[in-house]
Design a protein that fits this description.
The protein is of the alpha/beta class. About 50% of the residues lie in helices and about 10% in strands. Bound molecules: FE(4)-NI(1)-S(5) CLUSTER with Oxygen and iron/sulfur cluster.
């Protein structure tokens, strides 16, 4: 298929669920055409094969919590309006959602625990392949959580920070987790205390919500949802630990220029795709790939080209400028280019189907985590105390596979786009500080108060094949850009923007409204960033949503109000994973209007739906906006921003006029 044709196909993307070729990424479209010709199956085909999906599951009214079930609630069938044990639809829907949150929190927090243990062992001098890269951040984090820094060596401080992080996992006997209380506003601390949802141990919150939602336990949907919110805040805590410690170990990201989409796979190099979430592994693999360049040259390649997929790709893009090849729904398509010599996976979001795809090619599939094995792949037991040695062995598998390529099967789409990534909160504030050195974040809040910007949106989350691949993300962002919303992004949402060329200065020209354009131009003029400023700022992987949540907290402090009054919204246009449910729930508790572009399994209970969309607003100020039409979703986000910025302006004007403090009781 010619490039022009694929672009046209992407523009006129099909919305029919029975159509397997539903993507607006031209590179993915080209590979789907290719897969169809070769008779290879992808997750796009399997979505069609799974349709129509079970209406009970979709509505969240299928209970499989005990093996007397499954019980399916049918309000129209006498006697079947409750489960065998008598559980009502509201109990079942709430329990199912709470268990999603537990799953998501388990993923993020176990990832954070791995980072904390690595920091501990590195500080103890047990891990020669790891070092403390950002000791300034180490000391900032230490002071924030009240670990003494003066007169102590970096290793001493790091050890205590790691132990403090690990202590947040255990039972703190009523004392809220330190990574939560030290990073949120006083207003949120009070709110969480008042509602009794501040976790006093990450593991404890996860265990409790599983206990709470077992057969014969909590039947009260509001109580279950409050338990789920505590778990969502445990998720936030684990994510924040992961981000902070990863920055300490590998460096806090700084602006970096790179490229994204399948066109980054280079036929002249040994291509090693790294997929998953864990920088503890992938950072060392990047070192190993650099070390083994000569071995790659010896087999006729120009070197080793590491390309990232999903969030470990985002982590490497942020810190190392490594190319990003694909997001969640296009992971199989990277292998189908026939030029990926090995795919190395760690944890989370790895489709088991990559094994079957690798079998059609010469690609070696390498698993590295004992909790994420895939039958038939090469498994390396990755241990931090011999990290580089193991990583080099894995890279050597890729180098050896280079000679086994079948030239007939190589098809690499040309599509790729420039991306300016590396926007940690520190990097963003550094740019703001060039305009206002005294209070960098005021650059943003002043622009909102003056009406130049409508507010801030965090775009996050996955791909979900219930809608066309990447279309939700791109549509929401285009609408927000046009309406002068400052955007930051993480996860596969950031992947979609990077691939589509929405994270570079050209995109500002193309998509930004007048206010957003003027704002970014002012920043550019003052900061003169080497590579220019992007339309959407890439903040990293999914655990790095905490970077954006820290931005919200800073904005609240600057504006003198609590987070539910800040013109800050979030959107997960293509949410899929349990992790997206836990992140979204945490956002709501933090006071953020949160758009979800795929219907979660909640419609089977009017009551639970009402709690998520209405009651949450009354209690926390944040609420869910469920809207599957991305254009309408964007408009609802803009409406939420308009409402908040209008109120802020009114109260700030009144405070200025009467010389009083800004009112906060609205
Ligand atoms: O943690 S956005 S599909 S890759 S879950 Fe997974 Fe969703 Fe992608 Fe990153 Ni986040
Ligand atoms: Fe059915 Fe109750 Fe068991 Fe759920 S917990 S499967 S509703 S009997």
């Amino acid at each position: 298929m010619s490039e022009e044709k694929t672009q046209q196909a992407a523009r006129t993307v099909s919305r029919r669920p029975a159509d397997a070729k539903r993507t607006c990424d031209p590179a993915a479209m080209e590979m789907l055409e290719c897969a169809a010709c070769r008779g290879e199956q992808t997750m796009f085909d399997r979505y069609v094969a799974q349709s129509p999906q079970c209406p009970f599951g979709l509505a969240g009214i299928c209970c499989r919590i005990c093996i007397q079930g499954p019980c399916r609630i049918n309000p129209r069938r006498p006697g079947a309006d409750k489960g065998i044990c008598g559980a009502s639809e509201y109990t079942i829907v709430a329990r199912n959602i709470a268990r999603y949150v537990a799953g998501g929190a388990a993923c993020h927090s176990d990832h954070g625990r791995h980072a904390a243990l690595t920091l501990l062992h590195a500080a103890e001098g047990k891990l020669p392949d790891y070092k403390l890269t950002d000791t300034a951040k180490l000391r900032v984090v230490a002071e924030r959580i009240r670990v003494q820094t003066s007169g102590r060596s970096d290793n001493e401080v790091a050890k205590e920070v790691a132990l403090a992080a690990l202590a947040d996992y255990a039972d703190r006997y009523g004392e809220p987790c330190r990574w939560l209380s030290s990073t949120i506003t006083a207003g949120r601390q009070d709110k969480f205390k008042h509602c009794d949802i501040a976790p006093d141990g990450i593991d404890k919150a996860i265990v409790q919500v599983l206990h709470r939602t077992a057969m014969g336990m909590d039947a009260d949907p509001v109580s279950i949802i409050f338990g789920a919110l505590r778990t969502a805040l445990a998720d936030y805590t684990g994510m924040h630990i992961a981000t902070d410690i990863t920055d300490i170990l590998f460096g806090t990201p700084e602006p970096v220029v790179s490229e994204a989409n399948l066109g980054v796979i280079d036929p002249e190099y040994v291509n090693l795709a790294i997929h998953g979430h864990n920088p503890i592994l992938s950072e060392v693999v990047v070192d190993a790939a650099r070390n083994l360049k000569s071995e790659a040259v010896a087999v006729g390649a120009k070197g080793v080209n590491v390309v990232g997929i999903c969030c470990t790709g985002n982590e490497l893009l942020m810190r190392e400028g490594v190319y990003l090849a694909a997001n969640q729904s296009s992971q199989e398509l990277a292998v189908m280019t026939g030029a990926v010599d090995a795919m190395l996976v760690d944890i989370q979001c790895i489709a088991p189907s990559v094994r079957a795809v690798c079998e059609c090619y010469h690609t070696k599939l390498i698993t590295t985590a004992d909790i994420a094995k895939i039958p038939g792949s090469h498994h390396f037991d990755f241990r931090e105390d011999r990290a580089l040695e193991t990583a080099e062995a894995m890279v050597r598998l890729a180098v050896a596979a280079f000679a086994e390529r079948d030239p007939e099967k190589i098809h690499i789409p040309k599509h790729k786009a420039t991306v300016i990534a590396g926007w940690s909160l520190e990097a963003l504030l550094d740019v703001f500080s060039k305009v206002n050195p005294e209070s960098p974040v005021a650059v943003l809040t002043d622009a909102i108060r003056s009406g130049e910007l409508k507010g801030v949106c965090l775009l996050a989350g996955c791909n979900n094949l219930k809608g066309p691949h990447d279309e939700g993300h791109l549509t929401v962002a285009r609408e927000l850009a046009k309406n002068d919303v400052f955007m930051v992004a993480t996860g596969c949402s950031a992947g979609a923007f990077a691939k589509a060329g929405m994270m570079n200065p050209d995109a500002v020209e193309r998509y930004a409204g007048r206010g957003l354009k003027a704002f970014l131009a002012r920043l550019s003029a003052a900061a003169a960033p080497k590579h220019g400023l992007p339309l959407i700022f890439h903040m990293g992987s999914c655990v790095d949503n905490t970077r954006a949540q820290d931005l919200l907290t800073l904005m609240a402090k600057e504006l003198g109000v609590d987070t539910p009054k800040v013109p800050f919204v979030a959107s997960a246009p293509e949410a899929m994973h349990e992790k997206a449910v836990s992140i979204g729930s945490g956002c709501v508790a933090l006071g953020i209007p949160t758009h979800v572009g795929v219907m979660p399994h909640i419609e089977g209970s009017q009551l639970v739906y009402g709690v998520a969309t209405q009651i949450a607003r009354d209690v926390y100020g944040g609420f869910f906006i469920f809207e599957t039409d991305p254009t309408k979703g964007a408009l609802k986000l803009i409406e939420a921003l308009d409402y908040r910025s209008w109120k802020l302006r009114v109260h700030h004007e009144a405070a200025t006029r009467y010389g009083t403090a800004v009112a906060t009781s609205w």
